[in-house]
Structures are given as C-alpha cells and as structure tokens.
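Quick one - inputs below.
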Amino acid sequence: MKIERSNKWINHTALSLMTAALLAGCGSNQVQSPNPSAPADQTAASAGNEQGGELTYALATSPDTLDAGASGFAVSHRVFRNIFDSLVFQAKEGTFQPWLASSWTKSEDGKEYTFKLRTDVTFQDGTPFNAAAVKANFDHIFAAGRGQSRSLLGTFSSAEVVDEHTIKIILSEPFEPLLAGLGSGFLGISSPKAFEQYGDQYGKHPVGTGPFKFVSWTENDQIVLEKNPDYKWGPPGADNKGPSQLDKITFKIIPEEATRIGSVQSGQVLVAETVPPQLITALNNDPNIAVDQSITNGTAFSLYINTKNEPWNEIKARQAVQLAVDVDTIVQTLYLGTYERAWSALTPGILGYDSSLENKVKPDIAKANQLLDELGWKQGGDGIREKDGQKLILRYLDGSPNREKRNDIAAIVQQQLKQIGVQVNLNITKDTNTPITNGEYDIFGNSQVKADPDILRNLLRSDKVFTKGGTNWSNVADPEIDELLDQGASESDPQKRKEIYAQIQQYMIDRAIILPIYVFPYTVAHSKKVEGLKFDLLGYPLLYDVTIRK
Amino acid sequence: MTGTIATRLLTSLLVVIGSSMLVFVIMFVLPGDPVLQMLDGNATTPEAIEQMRQQLGLDQPFYVQFMQYFLQLLQGDFGASRIDSTPVLPKILAHVPATLALTAVSAAVSVLVGTILGVLSAIHRNGIIDLTARFVGLFGISMPTFWTGILLLLLFSIHLGLFPIAGSDGWKTLVLPGITLGLVGAGFIVRMVRNTMLEVISEPFIVTLRSKGLTERVVMYKHALRNALIPALTMMGVMVGELLSGTVVVETVFARQGIGRILADAIMSKDMPVVQGVVFFTAIIYVLVNLLVDVSYSFVDPRIRRSQ
Amino acid sequence: MKETTITKPLGTTVHLHRYRLRRLEPSQFFLFGAGLVVLFLTICAIAPQWVAPYAPTMIDPTNLLQPPSASHLFGTDYFGRDVFTLVVYGSRDSLLIGLASVVVGGVLGGVLGAISGYVGGLVDLIIMRFIEVLMTIPGILLALAIAAALGPSTLNIILAIASGTIPRYARVMRSSILTVKHRSYVLASRSIGSSEFRIFWRHVLPNSTAPFLVMATIGIGTSILTGSGLSFLGLGVIKEIPDWGTVLSQGRGYLTVAWWVCTFPGLAIALFVLSVNVIGDRIRDVLDPKKSNGSFTGGS
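Output:
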C-alpha cells in the first residue's frame, strides 16, 4: 500500500516539479539556503493546498520524556512544542509578544512580573486555562525538578494567583532572562488535571493547550499527535490562528543516519532531521527534496579547556593550543561549507554577541611554539615536548556516538597539536559524566541551546562547577567574571547587557579558555510537498503552519 | 516422555532464575555509577544525587539490594525503569512480539537458505555448485550485520523501493532485517548440513536404499536430508542466543522496536530493572527454544523417540 | 558501483578455478586464496609501514573524498587520508582484537570445559549449570555491559568480546574430553599406573583439541565482527590509527556519496573473516573428518 502511494506521489510531484522549476527560474542549487522556500513560492503553492494529511517527521533520537518541565533535550522540545503553548512568544529578532499571556508588567525593582492571561483558552482535556493552572505548573517543576525548566526560571521564588486570570511571579533577584525562559517550550504550560491524573507517568501522557493533542508514544518507534480542533490561539509568529491544517503528526524515531535520510528520499517519511553535511549537496540535487537549515542559538560548539589542571592552568599554554588549532580547516574539512565557523562562545543570533571577535584569532604555529618554549617545554625525542621528565599531554574528552562529527574534530585537533609537540590523548566514551566528575580531562567540547546570553552563567560562574550542578567545564573561578554575570542577569537595559556580555566573551577568548568551533545549523530534509515549515529563534521546528500539498 | 519434559521444565526454570541472578551480580560488580548515568547531561546538585540514590535504595549494601531484587522477582514484580519510571513488565511485553517476529523470521531464513545451500553443496560435492554454495554461506557470516543491513537497505528500499525502510508494522518491514540476521545463521547451517549429508550419504542404509532401486532424488531428499536436519536443528537452539544478540544491531539499523534496543539502552544507562527484565525474557526464550528443539528431534528422527 | 566491488573477488575465483581445474581441487584453491589473504593481512598487521604508501595520520583537507585512482588505490576518506593505508594499518588492531579475544575466551572457556569434562561428578554438574546459565545471557549483553562500564580501550574491548565466547569454548572442550576420556589408550595408561595429571596432559588433552582449535580459528573472525558491532553501537575505541570496525562504522554515513570510504574496510573484514573460516573448515576436515560437527552439537 505504501509503495502504491509513493508511486502516485511520484506522478504528482513530476507535475508539481515542473511548476516548481518554472517558478524557481534559474535552477541553481545553493548548498547553504537557510530558508529555500521563498515567500513568493510559498503563496503561489499554498493556493493549491488542501486541508488535512499526516506529517511524518523522522527524529534521530528519542525524547526522554514529554513532560516539558522535566526534559533537557532538544529532541523533546521538537515534539512537545506542538502540544504546549507558552505564556509569551519570542520572535526571531528576540522581542517578546503576547501568547497565553495577553499582557504583562514588570515592577520597578525588576523582582515582580504580573501576567494577564487569555480568558478563552482551554486545555486539550477540557480543563480551563487560568492563573491556578499556571501556578500548578511552577509547583510541578519545583517538585519534580529535572531538565532545563528550573534554570530557565533563574531566581524564581514564588508564584501568586492574583485573580482567576492574573498571575504574579516573584523573584528573589532581578532576572532579565525570565521572559526568554517563559517563551521556551521547556516552560510550556501543562494541564494541572493531567498532572494529578497521571502522576509520575505524566511524561508519557502530556496534555497542553497547543495545536496538537498527544495520542500515543511507542517506545523507540513513534510518537503520534493529532489535531486539536478547538485551537484558536496560535502564536503571533504563525500565519495560522485556528486549528492546524494537518490532521496528524507522526514522529518516527530512526537513529541510523542512512535509514533516516533514506526514508525521506524514498518518500516513506515527509521530513527527516539532522542531515549530515556530505549528503546536503546530494539531497539538493534531488528534485523532490528540499533541505532547510536553521541556525540554533545559545552557545556555539566550543572546546572548553580545563583551567584547573596543569599545565593548562597557564594562560600561555592555553594560548599555544589556541594558536595551533586551525579551526577554519576543521570546519571546512568536516562540514564541507555547510556549517559556519564560530568566533565566540555565543552564537551570532543571540543578544550581546560580540562580532568584534571575528577574525581575531589566527593560527600561528611559530608563535604557539614560542609560547611553549617560554614555559620551558622542550622538544623531546619523539616530537612531543617534555618538561621535568613529563610529556606535554592534553586529555581530550568527547562523547560517543559521533554526534555532529565531534569525534572527527578531536582527530584533527590531535594531528594539529602534534605539530607543536603536544600529545593529545583521546578519550571518546559514552559516559562523559564520570571523567568530568573526577576532573580527568583537559579539554571538552559542548554546545547549548538557549535564547538568552545568561547561558554563560552556567558555563563560567565559579559556583557552577559540574559537581555542583553546573556546566563550568573550564573551572573558571574569577570574582570579576562572577560579578559581570550577575550584572548581566539583573540589568534591564539591553545596551548595557550587550556591553557586559561582550566583556565576558572577550575574556574567554583573550584568556584562551575556549576554542569556538562551529555554529550548529539544525538541518532537515523534507519532501517538497511539505510547505510552511518554520523554525524559531533557537532553531526548533514549528509545525503548526505546515501544510501538505496533495 | 512427559516426565522428561517436566524435569526439563523444572531445570529450565532454575536456569532462568540463575541467569537473572548472575546478571544482577555482573551489573553490580561492573564500575559506573547508575545515578550519574541517570542524569545524562542534566546536571544536578550533589544533594539531589544523594537523595536519588536513597530513593532507589542504591545506598544499601549488595546483599540487601540483591535480596530485595530476588524477593520481588519471586513475586513476579520486575520493578520500574529508573530512567522513565515505566513499569518494566509492560515495557518489555510491548517489545517482545517485534523481537520474536524478527528472531523467528531470521531463524526461518537461516534454516531455509542454510539447508538448501548445504544440500546442494553436498550433492555436488567439490563441484562448482558446492564451491559457490559454500562461498555464499561463508560470506553471510563474514560481514558485520550493520553493514549487510545498510547495504540491503540502500539497494532494496532506497534504490528499488521494494520494502519499507524503517519501522515494525506489517510483514514487509520484516523482510530485510530477517534476511540480514538470517544470513548469519545460514552460514553456520550450510556447513553443518553439508558435512552431515556427506556422512549420511556414505552410511550403509543409503547404499541399501540405492541398491533397492530408489531414485536418487528420493534417497537424497527423503532419507539423507532428514538425517542431516538434526544437527541443523541443534544449531538453531544454540543460535537463538546469537540471533537475540544480533537483534540489538539490526533493530537499530532498521529502526525497529524490540527488546534488543531496549536492552542496549538500558545497559548503557545502567537501568538495572530493565536489564534484569530483558534478560529474564531472553533466558526464557532461549530455554524454551532449546526445549522445543529437543522435543522436535523425536519427530525428525524416530530412533530418538524410541530410545526415550 | 557496489556490485562490481563485491562480485569482483568471486569473479576472479571462478575464472582462475576454470584455468587450473585439472591441477587444483576447488576447495584447495579456496584454501590457497584464504591462506594468501591471511598471510598478506598478517604482514600488514606486523609491518604496515612496508605495505602502506602513506602515513595513516596524514590529514589532507585539499584531497577529501577522492575516488580510487592511481595515487590512491582505494580513494581518500573525509579527512583526505588514504583509504588503502587505513586498511593496511587497521589490520593491526583488528587482528589483535580477533586473536586476543579468542585467546582470552578460549583459555577461560577451555579450562572450565576441561575441568568439567575430566573431573566429572559434582564439579561437572556445577560448572555445566553455570555455563548453561551463561549461555542464556546474550553475548552482546556481556560485551555491551563490559565495554560500557570499563570505558573504551582495546584491552576492554577484548575482554568484552571474550566474555561472551566462554560458554561455547567450554562446551566444545568438555564434549571432546568426554569422548576421549573413555578411549582404550586412556584406560590402558591408567592401568599401567600413570598419574592422573600425566594421563590428562599426555593423552586426553592432545586428543581433544581438534574441535576446539577449529572453533578458535573461526572465533578470530567472529570476534572481529563482534568488535565492529560494538563500534557501530558507539562503544568502539577511537584512536589515532583506527581498526577496521571503527573505519567502517564511522565511514558508513558516506556510503551514498563516497562508497570507497567504507566499502574497502568492509571488504577487508569480510575477506579476512571469510579466509579464517575457510581455513578453520579445512582444519576441521583434516583433523577430524568423521566428527566434523562435534563442535556445535557437543555439550550436555
């Protein structure tokens, strides 16, 4: 049956292809096309779209839970963004617009936010949406306490129901990133009745106010959502405001790359995520398939040097590494021009990104060698430097499997550092938590997704070391930086915030604490029948506006 | 004979219990903090970690944990996953059919392909057919399964569009994974059937049958093959374990549901209750298949039936 | 493209076979080819620098994913490394993994099986129940558990692979010992007053090793395959000079755009395992033509 359908589909697409070719004019294939479906193309095509249809979307990994407040994984967000709405909506430019909250005010001291809620919203299980429901969500987060939700709430101290449709959030300290957090899917609002009904199994039975209702989750196989017919509170960023055009969304979990991409090529699914760079060109040549790339925001994938371990506690030693690693070559070799190289800890799309860092660090082997000479590391017999009988070793920790070719970055860095007499010992393992807990690493790569530059707090503040629940991989402990991070979180003037975060970013490069490598573009391949696929500020897909051309 | 089966069932039960106890010990002895694994990148405070450890009873000494586990098992309580707190039993039961189907199809492919090639190879001993059959058989066991799987998938699903790529709905999704895994077993069976056939052919009763004027076809397929099937059957019993192991990789390549993937995930995240549960089921499958193999001997070879 | 590379060795075999039909029996030809492959790859493993044209770590960004050519016989990979060189150097760790895990698993299993078979009685009962229990645990479980818990290193991978093979060696060894134990020469030796140790060492063991050796030979190939499976599941060792399994599993994403990156390492594995199996088969025929299936049917 499936085969039959795909045959028909080939006939259809043959026709639509010709139209598309005419519309496109010149048929040049761009490898890097953040959003290939030009607006003109979209309107022309959507005229022929019909209601209904099932969107099949192949995911590379499985969500851990669909309880928004309990997950920390991007893949979970991709699924539950369709089930849950948030209080506010953050546009691509970073500004905030009303969504489930129709308006809000911030107190003078920045410690109280009062939200007026929409009065016409109900949860998918019929429970009315109101201030008590929102409060129940905060209670749930602080009771269950896993995932990203807590850190997004920052200095949250309590929530107060002012009246049926007004809620007040009280903070212990001013916390500027609050709205960005509330706009995130990780703080999507769940039905309080469902919390009670399902208890600790809520993560398998999510109920929100979003455009799609949860139907089923078959482990390692698929997650099925269906249209919420009563939906009429679409976010400001969407074209649609009423119920979705789709009847159903099925997320298929297909871990193996060849299988996942193959399933979109053969027409068995309509969308497949995480397209590897080497296949992008090939897929762009496929007349039935379009490739969309959306830059994710937060921190760029960077290598964090552990400043606690000798000899990498010495700034000169770290600078030698910084000068010897040729990031352009790495990014070009591995991503074939499909990923952008990063220059700073933050991604370019985030508030406070410091573009003055671009092109600041250039590879310079001679200088790197000189720095190591100055520190007394002498060239040994086997080409590896030595000092006091000790070899110059850099322990490179990375996770397995080879996500985004990060293991391959390690392999190239290993060869590049050999040129300056540094021996890189690779530790590529499933369990990175144990070596990190024990401090057995000199360099570790990481990237994070978040909408606010306050993300740096968790990476740099002296109290945010891993064993205390943070992600300060570099073990930075500098009172001045702590101070700046606190200022950044509480400052409400965007201009001043930018300056603060620029200082912090420069500090990280000047002190050679991190080596920024690439900015990750979330890449999906989809059938050209799928239209209206959008991505939010963080690169998460938005499926609400999607239609399927028959 | 019923008495024998009853004894076998009883010892089988002991074996199953023994195997889950052994796995408990192995998983306990191996390093790696289960609580740290559970965090999986979601860093929390040391206090929270300690609290989690207490909640799970992981702060208890080995013998206490072991007794607790064992008593629960005797009551048929498999516990709940530490990762997503789903009860283990329904979790596994949801995945067992898919794995059983895959294992069964692979076993069928193994026996079918293996026997055909083996017989051909024996009949045309040392000829070109023998050579080819053995080569094909050996090739099956010489390729990593993930590699065979990806190649089959690219060829038959993507280029030719004959089979669905991924998933576990319907018989069509079973074809390629079944072949991938079945080829491995086929390789062993070819050799086995060939060698036994050669032995059987040289036995006196075959000579007698021939001299009675039976056609070569009847001699070969009715009498010789029947005898040659016994080792192939035994082989199946041993191979169930291998096939179950193979499902881990094949289920991942073909994005199938199944206990193989559940097991791999659970081992890597040290999700003990799930590991225990899966082992319990694979042990039962293993034991049952071997029991069946023993019983089916008597149908293939009347001599065994009489001797019992 | 894939088809030609896979059928090529088969094609050559058939052709040569016709050419030498009168001189060489097909199975002998098979064996000859297998011997050559094993010999060549062993040389590669011992002294890769004699065979490989380039350095295995040479990363060349200007030469990425080049198809096979005169200067790069097997093409280049996504680092611009020469794939032929990788295959040659990869043989070292692959063969090491294969051999060492057979030694570890074989020694442990063999000793258990020998004790069980020779001593008999309660010891036999206990060991065999233990082995039976061990057999119900899928080999991959032990391998995964050990590899995941001990972390990636070649030694740990060897232990991981070996652990799952113990029962089969134990069973083979036990069943051979059982058959030999009551042979007349053993009884004769005992009647003239030889010590038990001497009987075991001089008479029982040497006459029981045939099926065990066959299984061990074939086990080299199987271990390499298990190792590549672990790489596929993300538990392999990633080193400066990768083994075949790692090259194959890391390169599999390039199959549709640059088939040569993983086809050649894949073929290397297949050819090597195939050859080892052919040789194992042959040893079986030579050593013990009558009991050629004993290795698998043996046991309680």
